[in-house]
């Protein structure tokens, strides 16, 4: 059955903002005019003027300025200067300004009071802090050129109806700023309808959008529906948290990446049934990087000597940090075992999973009797053997 699931995993093409970060930001003052030239020299071309302004006043690299200047000739600096002043007065850094202008040089022709200021005021009114605003707007400058009344306000209203609180809306838009200038009724609405038709509760839908907003924006409806069918084929209940986590995991990986990670698990000796069992218990194991996956499996199979069945039965262990959690706890276990306090056949998986109780039960409890446990917990003790 897993072959059916694995072979039909959805192809997702990640999108990244192709915005070049400038290598430097010139400290030269804004160019007020370069129309007057020494006698005998030609007046600079409009394109030269534009490139000079983009480099010296906006902080773009020469290559980036040349690209941005195409089809966007500047004649004066008056309006561009007012736009730059607006951005600086509202907390944008030089680097953020350069990114926005590089992506959308047309911003320099905007009217700060009529076009830019209303968007800032609206986002502030719904709870965005200065840091939130500068992060979101510089990450996706398309928001600046979107209609406040026809795109931004309706998008926020849609998110409020699904996500609820301002805090959640802001954190979600920081993951995917594109949400603020998309027609969410067309892109996300139908997918929410499909999830509801399959019995996924609104609380799970909200959690999935919060964690995987880009999936809802990018994936086509037919592929989204197909992924739901595949997760249901794993016998995961739509009302369970594992269902929406598994769905998000499948949708976030391309088929090739899924195959690579599955084959890596198989290289450690896992069967398809082992993998499917582990994935159903903890779908996030497929979101672990291949480097971390190798380190974790190598450690568990060599140090504690856990069998493959133990790791596949407790896949949550793979989500822990090896350096910050697993190794310190394993060091404590070895100290306590060497002093005869713990039996050598103790259930290591259970101890690893104790979370906040581990410190109290195995470190604080024995630190007077066995001082080495505190050193081991902080990575300062190495035991041979």
Automatic annotation (TrEMBL):
Keyword Transcription (UniProt): yes
Q: Which GO terms describe its biological process?
A: DNA-templated transcription termination
For this protein, the record's InterPro entries field holds:
MTERF (IPR003690), MTERF_sf (IPR038538)
Regions annotated as coiled coil: none
Which GO molecular function annotation, any one, does this entry have? nucleic acid binding
Keywords (A to Z) from UniProt: Transcription, Transcription regulation, Transcription termination, Transit peptide
The record's annotation in Pfam families points to: mTERF
Which family does the similarity line name?
Belongs to the mTERF family.
Protein name as it appears in the record: Uncharacterized protein
Species of the source: Acorus calamus (Sweet flag)
